[in-house]
Every structure is written in structure tokens, then in C-alpha cells.
Design goal:
The chain is mainly α. The protein has helices at about 20-30, 30-45, 45-60, 70-90. It has one domain (about 25-90).
Length: about 90
């Protein structure tokens, strides 16, 4: 997916291309294929998970911000939290 305001195409295969604006763009403008690849990156790269969770919390908690598709931010927040809980549970074992 070519993201708005960005000059190069980013892929979820290379976590270094997933900047905050790129992740935000995938959440808002992405289609199923984009969300699948972001989901894989979130699952396998804790730093991407933390960044994605931070973006979602910022958007959800900013009542003054007008943004599209708030349910998408809730979905990604819940997905990231689920993976965090799963990871924490596995550490306890």
C-alpha cells in the first residue's frame, strides 16, 4: 500500500518501514490485505505492537480530535492488548 504523505511503499515484512504515520494510515485507509500484514507485524514484533497500541490510545483518548472510523482504533487496541495479555500469561508459565 502506498501511504498518503509518504514517498515510498512500506511493507509489514520490514518493521523499520512501519512509522507512526504509516501504521495510522493502515488503520484508517487499509484494506483486508493491509490489516492482515499489519496484524502479523503486531504479533511478531513487540515494538510495532507498542507503537500501534500507543496510536490507538492517543486517538481514542483525544476527545477533541476528529478522526474517521473510531471502531478501527478500538479493534486494534483490543487486538494489541490481547496479544500483550497472551504474552504475559506465557511468561508466567
Amino acid at each position: 500500500m502506498i501511504h498518503r504523505h509518504l514517498n515510498k511503499e512500506s511493507t509489514c515484512d520490514d518493521p523499520s518501514t512501519l512509522t507512526k504515520p504509516t501504521i495510522d494510515d493502515i488503520i484508517v485507509r487499509g484494506v483486508k490485505k493491509d490489516w492482515q500484514t499489519l496484524g502479523i507485524a503486531v504479533k511478531h514484533h513487540p515494538e510495532i505492537r507498542e507503537t500501534t497500541l500507543g496510536i490507538c490510545l492517543d486517538r481514542i483518548n483525544n476527545e477533541d480530535a476528529m478522526f474517521y472510523h473510531p471502531q478501527r482504533y478500538h479493534l486494534w487496541r483490543n487486538f494489541c492488548r490481547h496479544l500483550q495479555e497472551k504474552q504475559n500469561h506465557e511468561k508466567i508459565r
